[in-house]
Amino acid sequence: MQTPLSVYLLIDKNNRQATEIFNKFYTLLCRDVEKPLSDGLDIPVYLISNDENGEIKPIDFKQSEKNAIFFFADMAVYLGDTKWRDYILELKKKIEDGTPAMLYCVKQFEYATDLSYLNKDQMILPSNNDIIADWDEVSSHIYDCLIRYMKDMPQSKLKLFISHAKRDGLAIAENLRNSIRSKTKLDSFFDKNDIIEGVDFENQIRENVKSSLLMVLDSDAYGTRQWCQKEILCAKKCGVPIVVVDMHSDVITRTFPYMGNVPSIRLKEDNLDTAINLLLRTGLRYEYQKNYLTKIVKEGDNNDFEILSYQPELLDIYMLKKNNVLYPEPPISEEERRILNSTKKKFITPLEKEGLLLHGELISISVSNTNENRPDEILLRDMVVEISRYILNAGGKILYGGSGAQDGYVSLFSQISEKYGKIKVENEGEDVLEDEVYIYNYYAWPYMNVLSNDDMAYLKHCHLCAQQIYPDGISEEQKKSIPSAQDEEGKKQIINSLSHMRDVRCREARAFIIVGGKTKGSLTSIPGILDEYIKARATGKPIYLLGGFGGEAALISSSVIGRKEIIDSIKDDTYESLNNGLDYEENRRLLCSKNVFEVIRLIIKGMKNVIKPK
Q1: What is the DSSP string of 440-465?
Q2: Does the pTM of the predicted model rise above 0.70?
């Protein structure tokens, strides 16, 4: 399924801020991978760069209905050869010929406007050409550009409706209006100045609410004002994005009940810009989710479904006509669900609609960082977080084999498991038993011997079960020792232990997900990810091989889809050897896709085909 929008970052390989730029965009538009299982906008973000030969890969425009392309004009581009120029000129020609894309240029260098193929386009202009230092202002421009593009109004201004009570909100409303008009390219609707004389003012207000993003200045008097209430209800009825700015300074005897279920920010000194950014983020989320959920309903032939671009509330029961309602992730809490489901309507998320049930099955995830120094390495981490979310929500358990001391993914899985436990408590309203386990980490001896009691207590707190797997034939005395990989005998013992641990994982896992991995520098004669793939393949169990995120998994994927041989033992592998419930074309996409959402949909589809409910 095409996503409604993809974002592509065209960054030269010598751009000194390449990794920072990619991470900033990914956090802004997709998810913050440093906060596992947190809510994000879920918009795919991709890096396009030039390789060592200067070649630049073309954009796959078939992945999305619309494509927003940001080109970063830095010194490397300015001093480089003509390949970026040729690439951009060809891109512009495609857009002129109807390719669904918009190109936005970002000025990162003093003389970037000298470039003849760019100087006719209005650029995004960070202060001092430093996109990172000026990120707050740049991010508001990004939100603005993307909302207008998605709403098919790229040359029109977005409008913010400032909803306020005259008695105690007028001064802040005027400050907000002035800030919008002086610091941004946004428009605003402020009734004192924008209502036209001689025309029905009620219709003017309603029509402007419908075509705007609504900023509510919730002062002490706001909730009691009839017109303020009408503006709120009109916005909710029309699905207009809303942000509430909390300006309370005294006791409020009764809040207006329909102001909830929206983002809110406390008014502090000089944070109106932050409130504007929050409203723009909310507007982009609404627009993207509306399009994404509509595609799910249409492509799944679900005519009995209605969509919401936000989490549901009681007011929706009155406004919605159909009984089945699809809304964005994450799911609402169990208490909210119980109230809403007491009516005839059923509210579910896309994940719940998929209906994947794993019933405690162990799903092995084989992953480690690549050694390719990729600016978009964050994609690999996000892939692990998101597939973990889906496995756990489907009732499965995760099985990993990490060393702990040197393996950042043990820490990541700990965070995922801890966060998932907290979500269960919040959503289901029941305590989770202290010995409940969501993720298992199998340590090959002797790696667990270096863990302290504090380490073990933390892992237990996170509901991660740490188990040390001993190779056959070692004594009780040896189990307590820590052999050194610096001498031949110690290295041999560790290699044998790693191999045995992988054998145990392969026996106990129901299916395997393989992604990333170092291509060189392994302790063993072949990379660990390759060893795990070979052992998993020998079991005949389902394998989901993800090559789009680089590393050893990419090399294995190349062999499976017939691009080149790696080693004799896998040179004849084809997609049939993966036994994963996917056909040739689906596996071809799985083996090379960098689209996290596409990969997850394919894994879920495959698992539903081969892992049957108990």
Answers
A1: EEEEETTGGGG--HHHHHHHHHTTEE
A2: yes
The pLDDT of residue 567 is above 80:
no
pLDDT bin (cut points 50, 70, 90) of residue 201 is low
Phi and psi torsions of 363, nearest 5° = -110, 115
Q: Where are the alpha helices (DSSP H) in 362-475?
A: 378-393, 408-428, 453-461
272-322 pLDDT, tens digit each: 899 999 999 999 999 999 999 999 999 877 789 999 999 999 999 989 999
Residue 229's H or E segment, with its range, is: helix 226-237
What are the φ and ψ backbone dihedral angles of 11, each rounded to 5 degrees? -130, 130
- Structural domains for the chain: 3-150 (3.40.50), 159-283 (3.40.50.10140), 302-354 (no CATH), 362-398+477-610 (3.40.50)
CA–CA separation, 64 and 59 (whole Å): 11
In Å, what is the CA distance from 549 to each residue of 47, 325, 522, 592, 602?
Answer: 12, 34, 19, 8, 15
β-pair partners for 215? 162, 243
Contact 204, 256 (CB under 8 A): no
Q: In whole angstroms, what is the distance from residue 410 CA to residue 39 CA?
A: 22
**Other C-beta atoms within 10 Å of 242: how many?**
26
Contact 282, 213 (CB under 8 A): yes
Lowest mean per-residue pLDDT among 374-378, 455-459, 464-468: 374-378
Can you name the residues that pair with 102 across neighbouring β-strands?
68
Confidence at 191, pLDDT banded by 50, 70, 90:
low
> How far apart (Å, rounded) are the C-alpha atoms in residues 556 and 529?
9
In 28-180, DSSP assigns E strands to 45-48, 64-73, 101-107, 159-163
